[in-house]
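Pilot study result, target chain (546 residues):
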Amino acid sequence: MTDIATENINPATGAAMPPAGSLDYFLATKAIDDGTQAVGHDAFDVQEFDGALNNFTKLKETVKKASKDLATGEALARDLFFSFNKRAPRLDPNVPLKPSYTINREIMEEVMSTSEWREMRETGTAGDSLTSAMATIGAAERAVAPLGEETVKRINQLEAAEEAAARLFNQADALDDLASDADSQEQAKKLKDKAKRARAKARREQRKADAAAQALEQGREARSSAVRQAARQGLKEAIDEAEGLNQALKSFGGGYDAGVGAGSGAASSMTVKEKLELAQRVRSNPKLLMIAKLCGRFTRIALQHNRAKVKHPPDEITSITIGAEIARLLPSELALLADSDLEDLFYLRLAEGRLLQYDLIGHEPEGRGPIVVSIDGSSSMTTVMEVGGLEMTREVWAKSSMLALMAIARKEKRDFVVIHYSGGTEVVVHYFEKGQGTPMDVIATAEYFEGGGTLFEPWMEKALEIVSQAKFEKADVVAISDGIARIDPEKIAEWNRMRAARGMRAYGVLIGTDEGAQLMGEITDALMDLEDVGDDSATLKTIFSV
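Predicted structure:
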């Protein structure tokens, strides 16, 4: 993959582009109105596609291969991209399609009629060039393959004959114009003869085009079914890849904080390059991949449980913005519904999120204190267990819980601290102010694992040091371990004194064992034993009540 372009080069043509934002730049990237695009689009859509070509090497390779095999291949790739990237895509070309490009419309009709196309869009392709490019790559190669060599040959012949006929007719018209301005009758006659021969050639090319178009029409029904099935398979693969990307962005890029998609939180400020690097980092690490997969379920439980808290609704108008929240719409927008001629405009703006609405703010009450999570890093935490039909290590369960708790902290703007401990006297601390952190920082705390034995006192000392600070009053501490042999009685007494003095609540989770349950019970308000790991719902709901 390449970085975002620093040179103003059109990736589709390789030609230099005018300065961005200039009128010449707009004209250079205007909507394609030469009868080659089946999906309605504008200049912005063209710029998005050109930018995607420049950013994603694999997309550029896909377009290059499609163009090499099929004369209409590049236009098909654009149509596919537009169908995923646009808010409300429609098979509504700007101008009538050339006969050779009607095959692309057939393909688009089949692709857009599948449930996989709709499911792909639901992963968040609208307005996202990265997932739109992934979907285009998945669909383009598969949609062209079932056409077969004979069909591809006829399409190429049709396109070539069309171009030749158009060129010859234009040439004949130009020769007629020259003949009318000729200096002599002899020169005029020669020019008219040339024009006549050019028109004769053009008509022959047009007959070739008509014959190729007729042959293509005869095989349409069988071709459509094959294209639809192939595109569905390609889109299924693209959906899996997009969901993996979204899981990585949500788990490690801050996208679960508001219970919405990957466009929220830190993920919204990430560049395309950073998103790809994050996805590749997660895909290459089985532990991170499993954490990302499990984190989704844990975070949904955490946020659903957390929504029970009373919130003060936004009630102060600050400005006018655009969106699609019906309750906040301006009266002038709702008035569109009263006019049958303008009703369609209302629904189009609603689908695209472009209706004028009031921007409201509210004053939410202060949240609870910070959240501190201690995670056992002993070697036995790598033991594999099964939860809800999934095989995972104890470490993965602990890290997934940690990320779900971080989502709560981020949502409620609470400081969040992770303490990694093992059998030594030193601990590793990761601090996230108001639950926020860069994706690489979040990955760092998810990846960290020391191995060794289990010693509670060092992390308890560090936790007490943290909660003794003024900003850490009323902290919630969650300790996750897979067993403990002893805790110094003096440390237990000191811990409990600090709990009372600082208003600290403590929760304990023992994974896969009850070893040390009595000791853990002495330092926590609630202890969960996951010795029977078939169902962890009750445990999750308890620790997510922080």
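One observation from the pilot: Residues 316-361 form one domain. A full batch analysis is planned for the follow-on phase.
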